[in-house]
Write a structure and sequence with these properties.
Blueprint: H1 2-21, E1 34-35, E2 38-39, H2 45-73, H3 80-93
Antiparallel strand pairs: 1-2
Length: 108
């Protein structure tokens, strides 16, 4: 399923960018150090929230991808559950629709 693979790759790249950029929200008066653009165990709420959200999004989309792959391996091609899982994946991609790598076929 190349469309699922392309969408997963697109989402992974966007989330990697968000993880990297989370350090930009590090507060100046926080005693925790920022090293090489990464937030390392500080008490700033914003970077932690960004990183937690990205981790949760990754977990949900990974579960959706596994469901699609599992059903495909069993010979079920785009069952109702797979279609629903793919719609969830496309919904996670929607906030990035202005990115040059966005594909219109990903619109939920």
């Amino acid at each position: 399923m190349p469309v699922v693979t392309r969408l997963m790759s697109f989402l992974g790249d966007r989330w990697q960018e968000e993880q990297r950029d989370a350090a930009l929200f590090h507060e100046f008066d926080c005693p925790g150090p920022v090293q090489a653009g990464r937030v390392s165990r500080c008490s700033c709420p914003c970077p932690a929230q960004i990183l937690d959200r990205v981790a949760t999004d990754r977990r949900i989309v990974r579960d959706c991808e596994q469901r699609i792959r599992r059903e495909q391996d069993r010979g079920l091609c785009w069952s109702v559950e797979s279609v629903r899982a793919f719609q969830v994946m496309k919904a996670f991609a929607l906030p990035y629709e202005l990115h040059p790598g966005w594909q219109e076929s990903w619109r939920p």
